[in-house]
Write a structure and sequence with these properties.
By secondary structure, the chain is of the alpha/beta class. The protein has helices at about 1-25, 60-75, 90-100, 115-125, 155-170, 185-195, 210-225, 235-250, 260-270, 280-295, 320-325, and strands spanning about 30-35, 40, 50-55, 80-85, 105-110, 130-135, 150, 175-180, 200-205, 230, 255, 275, 305-310, 310-315. The relative contact order is 0.15.
Length: about 325
């Protein structure tokens, strides 16, 4: 947790630096329309850049809406044209990277949940002179790509911290729900929990099919009366797990990774015991802002190491401080 704190301080310093650079470079008075609210005097007076943000999001995953929102704010500040695309299939995501290369974008921010599939094309981008940042997934492999930075949490450490939290809460048997098979980040979370709390069983579900997910979890909880905690790896699955536990007549409690407006409400009313927040808004923001800093000033962030944005635990003790940001769609 000390390691995360140091990186969090570094991330805050980056935001301050970026804002200062933007203010200096926009001192010539250039302004840009920012919707009906009027002009944006904080827009950087640097050459227009075109940046591709490419994630492994599946349809309807609100987590990625938060990532994208952070990226859009950075893009607006930095005079960047942001092109967003996503595909949960590794080969298809790799093709999106190739499309960005062919379009001769000025930078690429990409996730590496399926590193074996995506990394070859990331290396092509770097070889073509296109700077790349990695966000959210690929901590163990990002350095091999030649990327200029990584922004996310150490998923194994986040899982271990969650295992410690579960032990404090008295958990004996945990079901860890993986909503996307083959996603190395999700597997690392469950392994981290198991590192600290041996009695952990992984259950795979299709995260894009909520009814099927609910049915799978209901059946599992009906069969396994020893399970006293279900840990979901995103907010939507956690809320589905709440319903599944009720349907199964199970006393199992629910913990979750990631925040949302609905998750904040669930934590506040005790339906979900805790959420592990990796600050996706910050991941999106920093991944784009780092490309602008690199292109305009040759800056890199993290000193050759990952810049960690989590984990941070949200529970009843601190939900009041986070709730308003979740309601605004930025946590």
């Amino acid at each position: 947790m000390v390691r995360w704190h140091k990186k969090a301080v570094a991330a805050g310093a980056v935001l301050t630096l970026a804002a200062a650079l933007a203010a200096c470079s926009s001192s010539g008075g250039k302004q840009e329309e920012q919707g009906s609210g009027g002009s944006g005097s904080g827009v950087a007076d640097t050459p227009r850049m075109k940046v591709a943000l490419i994630t492994h999001s599946g349809p309807g995953d609100t987590f990625w809406d938060i990532v994208r929102r952070g990226a859009e704010v950075a893009a607006k500040k930095d005079n960047v044209e942001l092109q967003y695309s996503s595909d949960p299939d590794g080969a298809a995501q790799a093709n999106l990277v190739q499309t960005a290369i062919d379009a001769k974008v000025d930078g690429i921010a990409v996730t590496l949940s399926k590193p074996d599939a995506v990394i070859p094309n990331v290396k092509k981008a770097v070889a073509a002179g296109i700077p790349v940042t990695i966000l959210n997934g690929g901590l163990d492999s990002w350095k091999s790509t030649g990327a200029v930075g990584y922004f996310g949490q150490d998923e194994r450490i986040a899982g271990q911290a969650t295992g410690d939290k579960l032990k404090q809460l008295g958990a004996k048997k945990v079901i860890c729900v993986i909503h996307e098979q083959g996603n190395v980040s999700l597997e690392a979370r469950c392994q981290g929990i198991k590192d600290r709390l041996g009695a952990v069983e992984n259950v795979n579900v299709n995260g894009t099919d909520q009814p099927a997910t609910q049915a799978t979890l209901t059946s599992k909880l009906q069969q396994d009366k020893a399970a006293d905690y279900v840990v979901a790896l995103n907010a939507g699955i956690a809320l589905t797990a709440v319903t599944a536990a009720k349907d199964a007549g199970s006393a199992a409690k629910i913990g979750s990774f990631d925040m949302s407006k609905e998750m904040a409400k669930a934590v506040k009313d005790g339906t979900v015991q805790f959420a592990v927040d990796q600050q996706p808004y910050l991941q999106g923001y920093l991944a784009i802002d780092a490309l602008w800093l690199y292109k305009t000033n040759g800056d890199t962030i993290g000193g050759g190491e990952a810049t960690l944005t989590g984990p941070a635990f949200i529970d009843k003790s601190n939900i009041d401080a986070v709730e308003k940001y979740a309601a605004a769609g930025t946590r």
